[in-house]
């Protein structure tokens, strides 16, 4: 109650009598009890600035407060408990792999690379779009999946087509899922690039982590404090 009065002080101070509804029954008598602590005495001094009365309302009837604190559009996504396990952290799920394969059909670049990697040749390479030719040798096909490996390592990654919803689903698994734990951008980037590949992955991870609602709520922003300055001598 004290927090609310202080929070909305500019609106209610001097505005006339008002009522405070609470499901905490003891607050009705707390302001009138002769046996109070020093902290409560300080609070009562604060309360005297306002013209209000306290009325008790059982929690089951206090639906207005519940509506404000339990907005459905603020609900955080929850993961299916049946999906939490070793498989979710060791390798992509089979359903995700199937969705990646299905999404290749709607990505022009992926279709060209699939065709070339299935039967590589100089003639097939010349048919590729110019922006694909330089790295065409890094791709290969295995069981319908387009795979990519960089020149400087032998890690083979699954190529994710240009499908926004699919990439967001993968980002959720590597950042929001219970087995991920909402880390910063570096950890999910390392884990993501171990299994998947698409262009500008780091930018995707950075943007996704910055926009994560849970991280914005519970993690402190790393802002530097303003330097102290001396006050002018009167």
Automatic annotation (TrEMBL):
Keywords assigned by UniProt?
A: Endonuclease, Hydrolase, Nuclease, Nucleotidyltransferase, RNA-directed DNA polymerase, Transferase
Where does the Reverse transcriptase RNase H-like domain start and stop, copy by copy? 3-50
Q: Does this entry carry the keyword Hydrolase?
A: yes
Q: Name one Pfam family in it.
A: RT_RNaseH
Q: Can you tell which superkingdom this protein's organism belongs to?
A: Eukaryota
Q: Where is the Integrase zinc-binding domain?
A: 165-219
Molecular function (Gene Ontology), one example: RNA-directed DNA polymerase activity
- Which protein, by its recorded name, is this? Integrase zinc-binding domain-containing protein
């Amino acid at each position: 109650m004290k927090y609310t009065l202080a929070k909305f002080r500019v609106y209610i101070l001097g505005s006339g009598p008002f009522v405070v509804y609470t499901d905490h029954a003891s607050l009705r008598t707390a302001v009138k009890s002769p046996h109070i602590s020093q902290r409560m005495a300080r609070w009562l001094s604060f309360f005297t600035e306002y013209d209000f009365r306290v009325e008790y309302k059982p929690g089951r009837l206090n639906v207005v407060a519940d509506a404000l604190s339990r907005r459905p559009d603020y609900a955080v996504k929850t993961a299916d408990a049946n999906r939490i396990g070793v498989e979710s952290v060791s390798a992509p799920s089979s359903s995700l792999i199937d969705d990646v394969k299905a999404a290749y059909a709607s990505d022009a670049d992926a279709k060209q690379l699939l065709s070339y990697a299935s039967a590589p040749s100089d003639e097939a390479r010349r048919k590729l779009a110019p922006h694909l030719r330089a790295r065409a040798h890094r791709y290969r096909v295995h069981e319908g999946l387009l795979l990519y490996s960089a020149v400087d390592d032998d890690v083979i990654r699954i190529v994710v087509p240009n499908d926004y919803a699919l990439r967001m689903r993968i980002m959720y698994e590597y950042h929001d899922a219970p087995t991920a734990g909402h880390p910063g951008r570096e950890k999910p980037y390392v884990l993501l690039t171990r299994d998947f590949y698409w262009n500008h992955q780091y930018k995707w991870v950075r943007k996704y982590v910055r926009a994560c609602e849970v991280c914005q709520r519970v993690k402190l922003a790393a802002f530097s404090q303003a330097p102290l300055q001396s006050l002018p001598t009167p």
